[in-house]
Probable ribosomal RNA small subunit methyltransferase A (Haloplanus litoreus), 282 residues
Amino acid sequence: MTGSRSPDRLLGRAGVSGNPDRDQHFLVDERVLDRLPTYLPDDADRSHVLEVGGGTGALTDRLLATSDRVTVVERDPELAAFLETEFAEAVAAGRLTVLEGDALDVDLPDATASVSNLPYGVSSEITFRLLPLGIPTVLMFQREFAERMAAETGTDEYGRLSVSAGHYADVEVVEPVPPTAFSPPPAVDSAVVRTTPRDPDYEVEDEDFFLRFVKALFTQRRKTLRNAVRNTAHISGLDDPDAVVAAADETLMSRRAGDVAPDEFAALAALAAEHGGGRDGG
Ligand SMILES: C[S@@+](CC[C@H](N)C(=O)[O-])C[C@H]1O[C@@H](n2cnc3c(N)ncnc32)[C@H](O)[C@@H]1O
C-alpha cells in the first residue's frame, strides 16, 4: 500500500532521528506531506517525478501514490539502502529508482516534474540544476530564501535570486511551514515554492554569463544600470562596458537593478554578449 506510511513509523523502522549536520530534517506533519504533491500544476505530467533528498521516504511514499514513476536521490548510504528495502515492491516493479549520491553530482534523470523537501545547505545549487530542466517543481526551502526567490520586481526582497529563478519559471510561495512540522525541527521557518516553467521572451545562450552578469549588477543595486555595468565589468567579464551602455536603451540604463524585470536582464545580457561578454569572466 502506498501513500499512507506514517512518518514516525518510517523513522522508527529506519532507526534514525535526523542529523542537522547532514541536512537531515524529516517532515513529520502528515498534512503537509499529503499536500506537497497536490501543489504541482493541474496539467503537470506526473509520469516521472524526481525527489531530491529522500530521507526515510515519507514523501517518496506520497509521490508513488500520485505518479507513475519516481526517482529519488539520497546522499546518505544508510538511508538510500533503507529506501531500497522499505519500497522493495515499487523498486521491483520498476516504479522507483533510488540513486545513492550527491544531488549536485549525479546525472539527473529525464524527469517530468520534481517534488522535494530540499537539504537547505545546498538548496540554491540544487535549484539551479532543476530549473534549467524546464519541468514544474514543488520545493521546500528556508522561508527567507523562498520569499527572495518569489519576490516581485521593485520590492526590497527582489534580487539576483529572483531574477535568476524568474528567468526560468513563474515562482510562487504556496505554503509557509513551521519548524514543528519537521523532526528534528530546523532553526528557521520554511516555505513551499511552486515553479512553473516559462518561455522567456529572450533566449539566453550563455547561461553562466547571464547569471554572472546579473550577480555583478546586483552588487551595485543602488546605482543606475549605466554605472553598474561599467563598475562591475571586472566581475561580469565584459570586455567593453562602454559599448554595451552605448548600445542599450537609454531609459533602461537610467534604472536600477532592483526595478528591472528578468526578461529585461536577459535582453541586456544578450546585448552584452554581442560586445564581448562572457569571454573571460569568472
Ligand atoms: C530535509 S531532509 C528531507 C527528507 C525527506 N524527503 C522528508 O521530507 O522527510 C533532506 C534529505 O536530503 C539528504 N541530503 C542532504 N544533502 C544531500 C545532497 N547533497 N544530495 C542528496 N541528498 C542529500 C539528507 O540525507 C536528507 O535525507
Summary: The first helix runs from residue 7 to 14. Residues 84 and 147 are 35 Å apart (CA to CA). The first strand starts at residue 26 and ends at 27.
